[in-house]
C-alpha cells in the first residue's frame, strides 16, 4: 500500500516534470524541470532496490548533467527571446507518432508474459562491484576509454580557434 | 492496482520515453533536443532496472546485469551530453544560431 502510494506519486512527478521539459518556452525552466524529473527517477531506483544506481543518478544526472546543460544554455543564450516559436513545423506529426509509440509499447507490455518474482534481491552494491571486475571487466575498461575520449574531444571541439 | 509490479514500471518508462521522443522531434532549440535525449535514456534505464528486479533476479537473486547495463548507459549519456554541448557551442560561435531547423548546411 505504501509502496503503491510512493510509486504513483513519483510517477506523477516524473511525467509532469518531463512534460515541463518538453513544453516550457523558457529553456532555464526546462532545465529545472529536467533536474526534478531526474530526482523522480532516482526515487524509482530506490523502489526497485537499486541503491547504487540511486547514488549514481543523484551524483551524475542531478549534479553534473543538469549543471552542464545550464552552462550550455547560458553560453548560447540571447539567440532568441521567449516569444520565438519553440517547436518546428512537424510538431503535430511528432505528437501523433509519440502517442502511437506509447500505445504500441503499452499493448506489447500487457500482451507479453514474464516469469515475475517479487523476492527481495541481494546487495546491489556488492553485486555490481563483483560483476564489474569479473564478467563485465572489458565493458568497464571500454567505458573508461569512452569517457577519456569524450573529455578530450569536448575540449578540442569547444576550444576557441583564435586563442592558440 | 495496489500491488506494484513489472507492468507499472514498463508503462511509466514507455510514457517517459514517448514524452522525450516528442520533444526530440519537435523542439527547435538544440539544447532542448539534448535534454529530451536525456529523458529517453532515463526511460531506458528504468526499463533495464525493472527487468533486472522482476525477471532476471527470479533466476538468480545475485544477478545484476541490468544494473551494470544501466551504469554503462549513464556513462555513455554523460559523454554524449558533453560532446553534444561542445558541438552546439561551436555551431553557435560559427553561425550565431542553434535552432536545429535552421542548421541545414549539410542537408541535401
Mean pLDDT of chain A: 88
Count of helical stretches of chain B? 3
Rg calc of chain B? 18 Å
Give me the secondary-structure category of chain B: mainly alpha
Distance between the termini of chain B: 52 Å
Percent helix of chain A, as a range, is over 70%
Main beta sheet strand tally, sense and closure of chain B: none
How does this model look, in words?
The complex is a heterodimer of chains A (164) and B (108). Chain A is mainly α and 164 residues long. Helices cover 74% and strands 0% of the residues of chain A. The N and C termini of chain A lie far apart (62 Å). The relative contact order of chain A is 0.06. Chain B has helices spanning 6-26, 30-59, 65-95. At the A-B interface, helix 1, helix 2, helix 3, helix 4 and helix 5 of A face helix 1, helix 2 and helix 3 of B.
Using brief descriptors, characterize the structure shown:
heterodimer, A: 164 residues, mainly alpha, 6 helices, B: 108 residues, Helix Hairpins, 3 helices
Layout: helices, strands, pairs:
The complex is a heterodimer of chains A (164) and B (108).
Chain A: H1 2-23, H2 27-47, H3 51-75, H4 91-111, H5 124-133, H6 137-158
Helix pairs in contact in A: 1-2, 2-3
Chain B: H1 6-26, H2 30-59, H3 65-95
Helix pairs in contact in B: 1-2, 2-3
